[in-house]
Amino acid sequence: MTKPNASALDQLTLDDVRAAHARIGDAVVRTPMLKSQTLSQIAGAEIWLKFENLQFTAAYKERGALNALLLMSEEARARGVIAASAGNHSQGLSYHGKRLGVPVTIVMPKTTPAVKVMQTEAVGGDVVLEGDSFDEAYAYARQLEKERGLTFVHPFDDPNVAAGAGTVALEMLEDQPDLDCMVVPIGGGGLMSGMATVAKAINPDIHMVGVEASLFPSMHNVLSGADNPTGGDTLAEGIAVKEPGQFTRAIIAERVDEILLVGEPDLEHTVALLLQIEKTVVEGAGAAGLAAVLANKEKFAGKKIGLPLCGGNIDSRLLATVLLRDLARQGRLARLRIALKDQPGALHKVVSLFERHNVNIIEVYHQRVFTKLPAKGLITEIECEARNKEQVDALIADMRQTGYDVHSVELA
Known about the structure:
By secondary structure, the chain is of the alpha/beta class. It has 18 helices and 14 strands. The chain folds into 3 domains: 216 residues, Rossmann fold (3-Layer(aba) Sandwich), CATH 3.40.50; 92 residues, Rossmann fold, CATH 3.40.50.1100; 78 residues, Alpha-Beta Plaits (2-Layer Sandwich). A 6-stranded mixed beta sheet has the order 1-2-10-7-8-9, sandwiched between helices. Strands 5-4-3-6 form a 4-stranded parallel beta sheet, with helices on both faces. Strand 7, helix 10 and strand 8 form a beta-alpha-beta unit.
């Protein structure tokens, strides 16, 4: 149980995490930890992945939620619990609450991906949508807590929740005790607090690196004294927290060595890479650790790195968009804007060049009205698929040599 008169560091110890591990037992999945040979080659380091996206609710969050539920009194469980969550904590709490017969109310931001709302309801949670951010949802949940006499289970700023999350590191170090470092996503800080507590207690020399989305550098700001803006539409909505925990920031300040920031293109590329190479679906927050390693190869070169893939709940439409955008960045998909004369055979002549270069046409768009060309001209945009960027570049060069005005439409 939480020790009310203890400092933050005393409230979360290796013994607390070991007790949590024994307590939650087989009610959560002991997920595999595997070396990725291909990612290791790409990164220039030894990459070990902890597949927490294979939990029943597809995220590590159920470890902390279950530990908190099991430490509650029977009276508190009977009244029910409430939480504010962007999704994964809500699913873990709802799933284990239903399993234990505990009523669960979840307040989510209105911006939460539909897949997380549906999955939370599917495992037994009563979902209330309120606010446009986690912070607004959190405030409303605390209001309902008082009105309904419920017990609030914080998604990260709670020693019992963090202790449950720390069991991820316990298993990682049991499987691979000689890791040089762990690279862990940070939102509110619960996962990193638990994992750093375990890692530093077992091996004080292990390097603990936190990762935040560049759009939400909240913990980085707090610990570095920086004043970077916080907010925006990030792929990593699971770690999009404007105000990190008070408890967790004290733990992280003491037990974490550094925090890195990753941009949206890196997050998108890593989600796509994990699906292409490891054949595993990971949400933006879950991919943040690997994204940081790949964006800072010189920092991690030659090291043995443990990476928790902490969640796999990503909306299928969003995943499709991420994959297509990644193909476009690689040059395997392209959109070419071509000025043509509005006359018979004009499109046929262009298409013959695509055939010559063995570039596959996916879509063709004609624009006659909204263009600065003369009335007898038109703009054609052709989406196409190639082996690589060089193949598309060769096509463009041939078209220009033939006399066409052609430009590649770049991603924003």
